[in-house]
Amino acid sequence: MTIETPPAPRAGVRVADLQKVFRTGNRTVTALTNVTFTMHRGEFLSLIGPSGCGKSTVLRILGGLETDYTGDAAIHGASPEALRRQHRIGVAFQDSAMMPWRTVRKNLSLPYQIAGERVNAAEVDGLLKLVGLDAFADAYPSQLSGGMRQRANIARALARDPEVMLLDEPFGALDDVTRQRMNFELQRIWLASQPTTLMVTHSIPEAVLLSDRVIVMTGRPGTIDTVYDIGIPRPRTAEVTRSPEFHRLVDDITEKLFVGAAPSGEVPDEH
Hints:
This protein is of the alpha/beta class. The chain folds into two domains: about 15-90 and about 165-270, Rossmann fold, CATH 3.40.50.300; about 95-160. It is built from eight helices and nine strands. The strands form two sheets. A six-stranded mixed β-sheet has the order 5-6-7-3-8-9, sandwiched between helices. A hairpin with a 6-residue loop joins strand 8 (about 215) and strand 9.
């Protein structure tokens, strides 16, 4: 009898030997060194580490926004710069950055317009329904709560079925109660299509709740310290966050993070 080996997960994101050096005046600061990791298609991975360790720099490199680096970075076999030019990368940051003079529906239509495509009204309607904002399609950002604006921001990041979704502290500006609620909302939204997702966060419980794996980075110069496989079945409920396994993972990552090397020196505009 022949036993078939299941196919290996398809490569989604590949980062190899990334190094980033900032030069400010006469100073040279190494922000990243030898950063190497891979993500499978459809994986949700979080980066966590001390302030200034280069987490957001990794995100900017994969978003095609930072091109002055050494090493290799690829998303589904293409360079981040090429995918950015094709508008194939979805991003959502702490500041929702919604255009205040456009309705929610028109904000979600922006990725199509920027790409020079006809707006896919059916897809926009589907995204509005997915994030629970179909009743607020014609509202303006100022008429939404902080959590609602971030849901719209995530929906916009999902427009045009991006190759990867990059999240940089998407809930960092929200109060604790709203942030916890948005964690479960993001899980629900992500489970609907499971886009390849890389998130930067300072919240260890948030990372454990949402991720398939959590990467802990060292202090500057940032590199990979430890990778944690979460392994908790989805969907993850509020009850899961009270489980011994959840708390063990949070405690292990917390200990690793706080016994790691503290950052030294300064890197401009980086967390």
